[in-house]
């Protein structure tokens, strides 16, 4: 059997300044392209686990292997190499608002660009690069926003720009921390549906923390449950086919069109 | 090449500073005079600006006129005001003290007025409902509510006032400034260096004092008797006040002859050029220094020394840099531009560093989590996010530098300032008055266009304490 994409083994994390460990004895494997929802009450350690996975906080003990390599946040070069292969979609839309949308989207490529390339693109983007940004934006349904200032977009649009940035990064693994927490229910369904479909198309594995169990069941074949820093459940649903369901709003629209 | 060699040669002449006990003892009277002038002036400024601030805060009749008057006075550069007072009252610390008192009364009056308007409306409403007049609301409502703020904001001006008192002294207001000009005229550069060191020490001493006062504003009361003594000691005799009235009458109506009108466009261009290039050079130097001294970008071993360097650059006022550079690089706008640039680099460096430190962290983290290098994070997140505050600080500095360009002009850097100074030296007071009015128009015009630019790009206003520094 091929080794898993991600192997977390007896991980314990205590962020700097914290009195006790936030994650304890966490172990799980993730296969390439697999989609997992991380559920649990707030304070269960979901965010800390995600931050440990991309090397933002160091593990106190245990180990994390990504594609056969051990995550070690203390070695800067290795950390950059790791982060290049892990994309992050944060909870709050955190675009660089004074820059244009294409700058924000192509920020996903900064990990593989040299500094000189990055500085040149800031002032003098080439047609091919803009084409890549445009393609990513079209996949998230924002094809007309290439040159807009990021600050002029709505919250939902900013979220989709963050997803486009993650696509441009061409990662092996996508970490999303409560990506729908600040969206209303209808937009939340649309965002999750989009995220999962794109990840499936590109073969990207996803770990997505959510606090709504129903959303987790609906969009993720596998659910990992955390409580007080420990894994308390790991369920894979096999009975149903592992395809992405359409968002309810779209289902209604389709029903309306058929009727 | 030769010019550079002579510049460096003269600068080398400033070392080592004359620190002999004999000379340091001789400096005690001018230091005491400078401190006394400042203390007396600040007392007078407080005495005038407190009621004026309350008046404006309470929106009593005539508020608009009063606010306009304060804005008008603030647009006159401090050194210009000092020249005016020296003419009217004769050479000496009395003129210096009055010039400072007028300038800071206008500055504090505006700050106090703004502060009073931020008073919690609920208690004031209650007073009004009880039938209190607007005056009573101001006295028993706004004043007690805002007294602490008024005292602590007032102390911000202390450090700046002691610097200004040296500047004012340089044109005949007595104290350290007169001593400074004396050493430069005598080519006694080692003693000039001593005086600059004394000034830097004095400014940082007053800075510390202001920090203590902000924490414990009650201590200001202890400073009241000595300040009262100073105000009384340096108060110009009534004979010279009468002389002032007739001197002022001699300046009216302002007028320029045809030759002066023809020279005018060049003078304006020189002054504006010094301000613009000085600000641009200063900002260009400040940016790398700010990045090197920002806590979130640079390691402590680099950040701390750069911070000290920035402090040293801004502790010495533009005029003093101007005096040194005019003495070493020669008379002309180049010396003035460099003087403005050096001081601006110090001020903007610190403000830029704070702006860079204060950007939102989330976008930075998001860009860094794509595997971007430190340079790429700075270029794609930190700098774009800090750009608006950086621009606002630079524009504020430009407004300030237009005033200072006329000031360094007076000590030989050219432009309107120099023309003004020459007119005063030759007793052409009506011409001097015309240049004074022109300076004022220039300052107001630049302030307005800077304000328009800030509004046009929706660059937000900054907190008062940021502007005060």
| Strand residues, percent of chain B | under 5%
Name the helicity range of chain A: 25-40%
> How big a fraction of the residues of chain A is strand?
15-25%
Q: Regarding CATH, which class of the domain at 6-95 and 171-258 in chain A? A: Alpha Beta
CATH class of the largest domain in chain B: Mainly Alpha
Give a description of the structure.
The complex is a heterodimer of chains A (259) and B (469). Chain A has 9 helices and 10 strands. By secondary structure, chain A is of the alpha/beta class. In chain A, helix 6 runs parallel beside helix 7. The mean pLDDT of chain A is 84. With 469 residues, chain B is mainly α. Chain B has 2 domains: 233 residues, Orthogonal Bundle (MetI-like fold), CATH 1.10.3720; 218 residues, Orthogonal Bundle (MetI-like fold). In chain B, helix 3 crosses helix 9. Chain B is globular. In chain B, 50% of the residues are buried.
Q: Outline of this structure?
A:
The complex is a heterodimer of chains A (259) and B (469). With 259 residues, chain A is of the alpha/beta class.
Q: Which features characterize this protein?
A:
heterodimer; A: 259 residues; alpha/beta; Rossmann fold; six-stranded mixed beta sheet; four-stranded antiparallel beta sheet; 10 strands; 37% helix; 23% strand; globular; B: 469 residues; mainly alpha; MetI-like fold; 2 domains; 21 helices; disordered C terminus
């Amino acid at each position: 059997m091929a080794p898993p994409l991600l192997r977390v083994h007896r991980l314990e994390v205590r962020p700097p300044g914290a009195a006790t460990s936030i994650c304890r004895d966490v172990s799980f494997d993730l296969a390439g392209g697999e989609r997992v929802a991380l559920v649990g009450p707030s304070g269960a350690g979901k965010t800390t686990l995600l931050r440990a996975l991309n090397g933002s906080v160091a593990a106190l003990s245990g180990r994390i292997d990504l594609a056969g390599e051990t995550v070690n946040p203390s070695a800067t070069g290795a950390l950059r190499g790791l982060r290049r292969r892990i994309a992050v979609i944060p909870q709050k839309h955190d675009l660089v608002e004074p820059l244009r949308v294409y700058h924000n989207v192509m920020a996903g490529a900064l990990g593989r660009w040299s500094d000189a390339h990055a500085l040149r693109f800031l002032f003098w983007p080439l047609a091919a690069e803009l084409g890549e940004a445009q393609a990513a934006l079209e996949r998230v349904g924002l094809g007309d926003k290439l040159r807009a200032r990021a600050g002029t977009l709505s919250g939902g649009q900013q979220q989709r720009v963050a997803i486009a940035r993650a696509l441009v990064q061409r990662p092996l693994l996508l970490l999303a921390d409560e990506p729908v927490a600040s969206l209303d229910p209808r937009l939340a369904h649309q965002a999750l549906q989009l995220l999962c479909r794109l990840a499936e198309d590109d073969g990207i594995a996803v770990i997505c923390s959510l606090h709504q169990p129903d959303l987790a069941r609906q969009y993720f074949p596998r659910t990992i449950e955390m409580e007080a820093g420990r894994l308390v459940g790991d369920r894979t649903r096999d009975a149903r086919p592992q395809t992405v369901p359409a968002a309810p709003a779209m289902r209604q629209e389709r029903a309306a069109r058929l009727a | 090449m030769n010019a550079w060699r002579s510049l460096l040669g003269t600068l080398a002449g400033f070392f080592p500073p004359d620190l002999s006990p004999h000379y340091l003892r001789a400096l005690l009277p001018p230091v005491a005079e400078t401190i006394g002038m400042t203390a007396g002036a600040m007392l007078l400024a407080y005495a005038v600006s407190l009621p004026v601030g309350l008046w404006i805060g309470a929106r009593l009749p005539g508020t608009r006129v009063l606010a306009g008057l304060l804005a008008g006075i603030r647009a006159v550069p401090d050194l210009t005001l000092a020249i005016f007072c020296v003419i009217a009252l004769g050479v000496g610390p009395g003129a210096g003290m009055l010039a400072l008192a007028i300038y800071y009364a206008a500055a504090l009056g505006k700050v106090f007025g703004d502060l009073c308007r931020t008073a919690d409306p609920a208690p004031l409403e209650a007073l009004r409902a009880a039938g209190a007049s607007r005056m009573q609301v101001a006295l028993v409502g706004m004043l007690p509510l805002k007294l602490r703020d008024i005292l602590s904001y007032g102390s911000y001006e202390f450090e700046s006032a002691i610097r200004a008192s040296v500047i004012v002294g340089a044109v005949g207001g007595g104290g350290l400034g007169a001593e400074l000009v004396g050493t430069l005229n005598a080519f006694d550069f080692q003693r000039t260096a001593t005086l600059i060191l004394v000034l830097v020490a004095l400014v940082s001493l007053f800075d510390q004092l202001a920090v203590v006062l902000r924490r414990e504003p009650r201590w200001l009361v202890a400073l009241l008797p000595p300040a009262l003594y100073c105000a009384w000691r340096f108060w110009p005799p009534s004979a010279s006040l009468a002389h002032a009235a007739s001197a002022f009458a001699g300046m009216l109506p302002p007028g320029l002859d045809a030759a002066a009108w023809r020279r005018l466009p060049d003078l304006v261009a020189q002054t504006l050029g010094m301000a613009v290039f000085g600000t641009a050079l200063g900002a260009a130097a400040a940016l790398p220094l700010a990045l090197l001294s920002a806590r979130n970008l640079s390691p402590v071993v680099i950040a701390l020394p750069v911070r000290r360097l920035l402090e040293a650059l801004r502790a010495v006022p533009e005029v003093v840099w101007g005096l040194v550079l005019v003495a070493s690089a020669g008379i002309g706008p180049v010396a003035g531009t460099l003087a403005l640039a050096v001081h601006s680099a110090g001020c903007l460096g610190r403000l830029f560093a704070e702006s860079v430190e204060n950007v939102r962290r989330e976008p930075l983290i998001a860009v860094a989590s794509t595997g971007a290098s430190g340079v790429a994070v700075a270029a794609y997140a930190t700098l774009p996010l800090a750009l608006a505050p950086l621009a606002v600080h630079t524009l504020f500095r430009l407004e300030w530098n237009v005033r200072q360009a006329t000031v360094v002009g007076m000590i030989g850097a050219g432009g309107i300032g120099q023309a003004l100074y020459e007119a005063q030296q030759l007793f052409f007071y009506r011409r001097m008055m015309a240049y004074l009015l022109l300076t004022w128009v220039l300052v107001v015009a630049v302030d307005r266009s800077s304000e328009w630019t800030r509004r046009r790009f929706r660059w937000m206003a900054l907190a008062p304490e940021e502007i005060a520094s």
